[in-house]
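Action item from last meeting closed. Structure (142 res):
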């Protein structure tokens, strides 16, 4: 949302939509990285800034491509509306890139590595005990 406010402001002062998207993205990168790392994905490990920048690059290309496609096709005749629609189009891919590429952890619930680790842990010792621990089921008297 904050990035769209900057995008609209840059358009208002006369920037081309691609440059407005880029400059608004820079503001979005700084705030987005810090807030996603701290609040959304609660990631406290090593810095993931390079991955975040790569994800932003993909998101930027998707956003500009969406805007250009909407405007060139005639579906939208206004860059403000094109930017808002492109932000909506890019929201899910950007979230997924952040979740599974930028802030992904091998122990994240539901991740392929977490599944493999769970299977490995099950085979190492008492299977019944590990199953109860993994699914957090109450202990059944033996």
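Sequence:
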């Amino acid at each position: 949302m904050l990035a769209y406010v900057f995008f609209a402001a840059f358009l208002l002062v006369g920037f081309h939509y691609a440059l407005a998207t880029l400059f608004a993205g820079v503001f979005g990168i700084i705030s987005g990285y810090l807030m996603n790392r701290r609040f959304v994905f609660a990631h406290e490990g090593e810095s993931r800034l390079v991955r975040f920048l790569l994800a932003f690059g993909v998101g930027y290309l998707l956003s500009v491509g969406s805007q250009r496609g909407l405007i060139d096709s005639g579906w939208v005749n206004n860059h403000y509306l094109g930017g808002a629609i492109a932000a909506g189009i890019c929201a899910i891919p950007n979230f997924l890139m952040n979740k599974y590429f930028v802030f992904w952890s091998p122990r994240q619930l539901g991740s392929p590595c977490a599944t493999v680790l769970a299977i490995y842990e099950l085979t190492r010792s008492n299977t019944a005990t590990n199953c109860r621990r993994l699914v957090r089921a109450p202990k059944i008297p033996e």
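Note appended to the action item: The chain has six helices and no strands.
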